[in-house]
Amino acid sequence: MAKPRTIGDEDYQTLAAFRYALRRFLAFSERAAKAQGLTAQQHQALLAMKGYGQDRPLAIGDLAEYLMLRHNSAVELVDRLVQAELVERLHAEGDRRRVTLALTPKAEAILQDLSTAHLEELRDSRTLLAQLLERLGG
């Protein structure tokens, strides 16, 4: 059995700084979403739909997995997005029982604005993140 690695003060400082950077980014993200009239979870859902990157459209079950939600919670989230005219439910070709999700043009515009701001925030955080990775030897 391998001996457990000793955790030193620098390790704790690195982890604390990383958690701080994450929280700063998430707080920024929540404020940016709110400014667009969205909750952070709604923004995450729109981003997941746009960035899913699979060969097939995203279904509610896929969204639930991607966001680590229970299926019924994902259904409620999608219901709110449909009501806000940000998402459409579509029936899959060849299987009318399978419902997939598509962003509306309104959602596309909001997501583009949010993503531009988020990428800029990440660029601004690049130095801090690089320093943290350097501490880890990466």
Short synopsis of the structure:
By secondary structure, the chain is mainly alpha-helical. Helices cover 66% and strands 11% of the residues.
Description:
- By secondary structure, this protein is mainly alpha-helical.
- The chain has one domain: Arc Repressor Mutant, subunit A (Orthogonal Bundle).
- Helices cover 66% and strands 11% of the residues.
- The chain has helices at residues 9-35, 40-51, 60-67, 71-83, 105-135; strands at 87-92, 95-103.
Overview features:
single chain; 138 residues; mainly alpha; Arc Repressor Mutant, subunit A; two-stranded antiparallel sheet; 5 helices
What is the fold's blueprint, element by element?
Blueprint: H1 9-35, H2 40-51, H3 60-67, H4 71-83, E1 87-92, E2 95-103, H5 105-135
Antiparallel strand pairs: 1-2
Helix pairs in contact: 1-5, 2-5, 3-4
Number of self-contained structural domains = 1
Order of helices and strands: HHHHEEH
CATH superfamily: Winged helix-like DNA-binding domain superfamily/Winged helix DNA-binding domain
Q: What's the helix count?
A: 5
Distance between the termini: 26 Å
Q: Any idea what the CATH architecture is?
A: Orthogonal Bundle
Please report the first level of CATH classification, the CATH class.
Mainly Alpha
Secondary structure category: mainly alpha
The helical percent reads 55-70%
Sheet having the most strands? 2 strands, antiparallel
Low-confidence stretches: none
| Backbone CA Rg | 19 Å
By CATH, the topology is Arc Repressor Mutant, subunit A
- The average pLDDT is 91
Q: Indicate the overall shape.
A: globular
The largest sheet has its strands arranged as 1-2
The number of distinct β-strands equals 2
Strand content: 5-15%
GO molecular function: DNA binding; DNA-binding transcription factor activity
InterPro entries: HTH_MarR-typ, MarR/SlyA-like, Tscrpt_reg_MarR-type_CS, WH-like_DNA-bd_sf, WH_DNA-bd_sf
Domain HTH marR-type: 8-138
Pfam families: MarR_2
